[in-house]
């Protein structure tokens, strides 16, 4: 068998028929009749659109407003509004998921939305045919008209910007407006008003200027908490030290009480001698979440105090009136009792008074601590130099 040497591989060109390449080239050179017909059919429409684009509607401040410019301006405004909504929504989601820097994210959210809208309006005016530099006089006159006609709206808008930058009240703070009896958390600071949601899930809309011009109580300013006072009473004759220990143990064991420090500790004060018993107050530092629900917090601590007094066998007073008769039928003492039929003989002697057990006075300790701090801060008085006899 003989081997074939020097054979060349077969290529695809060897099977092509002569004249095929020239025929393909001739096909590319020929124009397509469909494209020609389409261009011929759409040429009147294109000419009409160009004419409509250049059609002048009105001339304002030396600038001619055309239909094409007006359509372009409307499209730019629509894109700006959509972009502002998307950016603010994305930043809001990031702020809701973040545990830190929520105020900075809220500030960035508001400023980004305003900036996108302002840039969109300026670009739309330029696309419509207005010369921004030549609108200075027109803008001044428009500003005066807006200031007179929309003075209240501009006032609320500027007040909202001040609230965002001032940060004395921020989103998430729990505030109280005493004159209208509104307490709730700030949910949103808008361009016109601030939305406050109460613990009953009631949304109250307050004008922004109201939070600047009128007094507002911020219970959680800059993420801090506050001390609350829970009043309660016990019957006369109760052991004050026993009452204090029982109530403090209950307050310290509560999950919504902050751990005690040297500056913030739970205390029990005796505040007054009431008509039916001794009036006390529990002073406690609750958590920030508990401060935002004052009604539930007060009810929870009152329940804890009632359980603690009941467990310590301390009597809770109720309204009562003692009636003492000094004389009856002209008689006094045992004779009067015998005449009324309430026993005979002398009344049993009163037991000898026991020496009082020393108890802790939280109010005195608190007062002495503050006094010591003030003394330490005050400079020592200087003694004047003695004058000579001459």
Condensed summary:
The protein has helices at 20-29, 33-53, 67-97, 102-128, 136-149, 151-166, 208-213, 240-252, 288-291, 294-311, 334-340, 362-377; strands at 56-60, 63-66, 174-177, 182-189, 193-197, 203-207, 217-218, 228-235, 267-273, 277-284. By secondary structure, it is α+β, with helices and mostly antiparallel strands.
List keywords for this structure.
single chain, alpha+beta, SH3 type barrels, Alpha-Beta Plaits, 3-stranded antiparallel beta sheet, 12 helices, 47% helix, 14% strand
Average pLDDT reading: 75
Q: Order the strands across the largest sheet as they lie in space.
A: 6-5-4-3-7
The separation of the N and C termini measures 152 Å
CATH class of the domain at 63-149: Mainly Alpha
Structural class: alpha+beta
In CATH terms, what is the fold-level topology of the domain at 63-149? Helix Hairpins
- Number-wise, the strands total 10
Number of helices: 12
Name the overall outline. Answer: elongated
In the CATH hierarchy, the architecture of the domain at 63-149 is Orthogonal Bundle
* Model regions low in confidence, pLDDT < 50 over at least 5 residues: 1-17, 19-29
**Helix content bin:** 40-55%
Give the percentage of residues in beta strands: 5-15%
Order of helices and strands: HHEEHHHHEEEEHEEHEEHHHH
Largest sheet: 5 strands, antiparallel
Please compute the radius of gyration using only Cα atoms.
43 Å
């Amino acid at each position: 068998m003989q081997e074939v040497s020097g054979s060349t591989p077969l290529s695809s060109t060897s099977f092509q028929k002569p004249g095929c390449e020239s025929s393909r080239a001739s096909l590319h050179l020929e124009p397509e009749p469909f494209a020609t017909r389409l261009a011929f059919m759409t040429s009147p429409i294109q000419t009409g659109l160009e004419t409509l684009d250049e059609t002048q509607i009105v001339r304002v401040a030396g600038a001619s407003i055309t239909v094409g410019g007006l359509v372009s301006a409307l499209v730019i405004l629509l894109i700006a509004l959509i972009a502002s909504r998307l950016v603010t929504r994305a930043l809001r989601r990031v702020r809701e998921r973040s545990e830190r820097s929520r105020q900075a994210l809220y500030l960035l959210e508001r400023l980004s939305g305003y900036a996108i809208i302002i840039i969109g309006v300026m670009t739309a005016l330029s696309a419509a045919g207005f010369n921004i530099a030549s609108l200075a006089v027109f803008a001044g006159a428009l500003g005066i008209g807006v200031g007179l006609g929309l003075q209240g709206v501009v006032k609320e808008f500027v007040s909202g910007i001040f609230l965002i930058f001032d940060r004395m009240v921020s989103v998430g703070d729990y505030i109280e407006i005493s004159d209208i009896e509104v307490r709730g958390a700030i949910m949103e600071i808008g361009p016109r008003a601030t939305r406050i949601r109460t613990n009953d899930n009631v949304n109250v809309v307050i004008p922004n200027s109201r939070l600047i011009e009128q007094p507002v109580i911020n219970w959680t300013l800059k993420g801090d908490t506050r001390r609350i006072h829970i009043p309660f009473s016990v019957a006369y004759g109760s052991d004050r030290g026993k009452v204090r220990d029982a109530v403090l143990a209950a307050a310290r064991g509560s999950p919504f009480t902050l751990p005690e420090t040297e500056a913030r500790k739970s205390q029990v004060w005796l505040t007054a001698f009431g008509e039916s018993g001794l009036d006390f107050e529990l002073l406690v530092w609750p958590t920030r979440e508990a401060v935002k629900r004052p009604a539930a917090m007060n009810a929870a601590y009152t329940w804890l105090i009632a359980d603690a007094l009941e467990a310590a066998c301390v009597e809770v007073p109720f309204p009562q009136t003692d009636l003492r008769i000094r004389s009856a039928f002209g008689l006094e003492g045992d004779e009067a009792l015998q005449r009324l039929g309430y026993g005979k003989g002398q009344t049993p002697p009163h037991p000898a008074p026991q020496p009082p057990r020393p108890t802790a006075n939280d109010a005195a300790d608190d007062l002495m601590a503050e006094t010591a701090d003030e003394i330490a801060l005050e400079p020592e008085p200087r003694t004047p130099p003695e004058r000579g006899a001459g």
